[in-house]
Amino acid sequence: MSFNIAIDGPAGAGKSTIAKRAARELQFIYVDTGAMYRAIAYGLLQTGTDVEDGQALAEALSGMDVSIGYENGEQQVYLNGENVSGVIRTEAVSRMASTAAAKPQVREMLKNLQQDLARRENVLMDGRDIGTMILPDAQLKIYLTASVHTRAERRYRELVERGESCSLEEIEADIRERDFRDMNRETAPLCQAEDAVLVDSSDMTIEEAVQRILTLARERMQEKTGDIE
Ligand code: DC
C-alpha cells in the first residue's frame, strides 16, 4: 500500500518549496495540485470560456485532458499533451485558477487524477483540500501556514529580487482576498483537517519547516510499520 502525505495551506506559506524538498528527501513523488488547477485555468482563458455559464464550462472541460509527468525530478503539467508548466504562473492564470477552483465540475475532474496517483505511488501531495476531501485516509496530514504579514513580506522580497515594482500593502491585501475566497467557497473550502498537524512557518526558515515535516513523516512511517508487524 502506498504511503500518502497531504499538505494543505494558504497561498504563500512556502508550501511548494517546502513540500518539494521534503518529498525529495523522502524519495516520494511530489504532486503540486495547484498546477493542475492552473492548467485548466490556462485552457479556459485560451478558449475564452465564460466559467459562470455551466454548460459552456462543461463543454470546455470535456475537451481538456490534464496530466502530469516529471523532467529532471521537476513536476510538469500537460494540457492535451502540451507542456504548459511555463505559462501557468501569470497573474491572469492565478486569478482564473482561483475562480475555476470554486466550480464543482472542475474539482470533480481533478479528483480522480489526484486519487489515482496517490493509490499507485508514495506521494506528498500539496493543495487546499487534500487532507479533507482528496486523501481523507492519508497517513500524515499537515496544515502548513504562516501569518498574512509574513507571507506578504516573502512575496514582496521575491518580486523585488525579480526586479518587479510592487507595494507591500497591495500584496498583503491581495493575500487576504485570496485567503477569503479559498476559505469561504462552498465547494471544498480551504480548512485544516481535524487530524492534521499544524505547522506555522512564520518564524521558521525553509530548512526548519522541511525538517519538521521530515520528522513527522518518519515518525508516522515508523508507527505504520510497527502496526503491520
Ligand atoms: O497553490 P496555487 O496557487 O498554485 O493554486 C492555484 C489555485 O488553485 C488557488 O486559487 C487555489 C486552487 N487550488 C485548490 O482550490 N485546490 C487545490 N488542491 C490546489 C489549488
Outline the secondary-structure elements.
Elements: E1 4-8, H1 15-26, E2 29-32, H2 33-46, H3 54-62, E3 66-71, E4 74-79, E5 82-83, H4 91-100, H5 104-120, E6 123-127, H6 130-134, E7 140-145, H7 148-161, H8 168-184, E8 197-200, H9 206-228
The structure holds 2'-deoxycytidine-5'-monophosphate.
The site of 2'-deoxycytidine-5'-monophosphate has 13 residues, from helix 2 and helix 4.
What does this structure look like?
- The protein is an alpha/beta fold.
- Helices cover 53% and strands 17% of the residues.
- It contains nine helices and eight strands.
- It has helices spanning 15-26, 33-46, 54-62, 91-100, 104-120, 130-134, 148-161, 168-184, 206-228; strands at 4-8, 29-32, 66-71, 74-79, 82-83, 123-127, 140-145, 197-200.
- It has a five-stranded parallel sheet with strand order 2-6-1-7-8, sandwiched between helices. It has a three-stranded antiparallel sheet with strand order 3-4-5, with helices on one face.
- A hairpin with a 2-residue loop joins strand 3 (66-71) and strand 4 (74-79).
- Helix 2 (33-46) packs across helix 5.
- The mean pLDDT is 93.
- 2'-deoxycytidine-5'-monophosphate is lined by residues 11, 33-34, 37-38, 97-98, 101, 127-130, 182.
